Amino acid sequence: MKSLSIGSAIVLLVLVAASESAKTESTIFGPQPMQYPMPATSTFIVSDFLQFLQTAVTCFNKLRIPEERFPLYLAGVFPNCPETQCFVRCLSANLNLYCDETGSDIDRHYLQYGLGQDYNCFRQKAEQCLAANTSPCNDPCEAAYKQELCFLEEFRKYVDSNMNSLIAAVAVEKTENNPVYYNMNCRLASALAPFGTRDPPPGPLREAQTACVKYLGICKTRLVQYNNSIYPTDHDTMCMVRCAGIIVGFWDDSQGFKLEGLMQLYPQLAADSRAQQQILSCAEQRIATCPPPDTCAKAYNAFRCFLDAQKHGFGVREPQPEEPMSTVVDAQEFMRSISICSKIQRIPKNLQDLYLQGVFPNDEKTRGFMRCFGIRTELYDDMQGPNISRLYRLFGTGQSETEFRRKAELCIKANQPLLDGQDKNVKAYRTLYLCFSKQITAFIRANANAMP
Ligand SMILES: *[C@@H]1O[C@H](CO)[C@@H](O)[C@H](O)[C@H]1NC(C)=O
Ligand SMILES: *[C@@H]1O[C@H](CO)[C@@H](O)[C@H](O)[C@H]1NC(C)=O
């Protein structure tokens, strides 16, 4: 059943590819499109196909979507249901193509998926589609899904043109006419596995995995995944985890999950009591949700709690006191404030693009934006002006606060005579932006790619 749907998905993938190339568009008699400059690549890093697949696999695992969906998604078939919507959001957000606050970024889609199309056509088509699909919507996954479907055709072409070798591999299998489907599943798994190369599990766990795959009769190529710490949510994998857990000592059918077994394998975990707590409480909750007789699923769900915690790293941050920086705006909040104030002030897209490159021209809209931004981040106040100690904590690394303050006050004072009779926006622009422009610009450029 599972294998069958993967088989049909591959067929579908090929069909999609065929129909796409048969389609020709005539633009000869269309209206003359407005000319836009090509997008600048400076603030966006295009993911290569391996990174793309890796991101897709990570989202897929994170959202615990049934395995047989993966080939469908890769074929660009996205059924309209909550988990698919969230997958689309996760993938696009992690490729930095989409974010909840500003929506789909046309230029970035062009750079990532555009494959040398005419930029102006691409942009016009995307703008029209996005305008029709950007209605307010409470569910972030649904909102992302609606907008990202505007790029479905490009997504399909992109995957298709990069997947040729995989399709070829599967096609050979198909024409051989033997019990192919099971093998195809293995092929697909092993073809995708190397892309997810992560820290391999410690030796004893790898050996246990190897023994269990053999004992359970799971196809051997799946070891490539397991040896890369990739554990999809299929039942074979779940039973492999139970088996390996019994061997290395983190699972016992009657005692349940045993953290000591993992602490022996991962010394950093033994030193991180906070992570231990987190894993244990996660495992308790998850095991409670498994149907009682299925020990494979129970063992697997507990193990996943460990994997989730491992992603954030063990050790180092152990006795963390409540860090004092929490009162200061962080990078994400900073970037979020830019998009929120852009919306509040109805900043046109072309200006917003400049802001995201750290450029703030001295015009009326931008001055209004800067006041909104300053007040929202509490870096600025109409009465007090810029909050220098707060700015220092955000930007001041590497210099003394006295020096930072001296320069700031000098600049703010120098601007004072220019503020007489001017409105509040001018004051914010001159004293917050002009006096800290270098830091603000550098900060935005450093974090543009880290936008959620
Ligand atoms: C996985 O790791 C085990 C133990 O190190 C090794 O024997 C086996 O060959 C590996 N398998 C693959 C497919 O990488
Ligand atoms: C400036 O920011 C700091 C740190 O966030 C805060 O404690 C202080 O009250 C602020 N000062 C003013 C004048 O708002």
UniProtKB/TrEMBL annotation:
Protein localization? Secreted
**Highest rank taxon of the organism:** Eukaryota
One example of a Gene Ontology biological process annotation = sensory perception of smell
Q: Where does the signal peptide begin and end?
A: 1-24
GO MF terms here are: odorant binding
Gene Ontology CC: one annotated term: extracellular space
Keyword NADP found: no
- Main localization is secreted
**InterPro entries this protein is in?**
PBP/GOBP, PBP_GOBP_sf
UniProt KW keywords: Disulfide bond, Secreted, Signal
* Short name of one Pfam family: PBP_GOBP
Q: Which PANTHER family match?
A: GENERAL ODORANT-BINDING PROTEIN 99A-RELATED, ODORANT BINDING PROTEIN-RELATED
Q: Which family does it belong to?
A: Belongs to the PBP/GOBP family.
Can you say what this protein is called? Uncharacterized protein
Protein's organism: Anopheles minimus
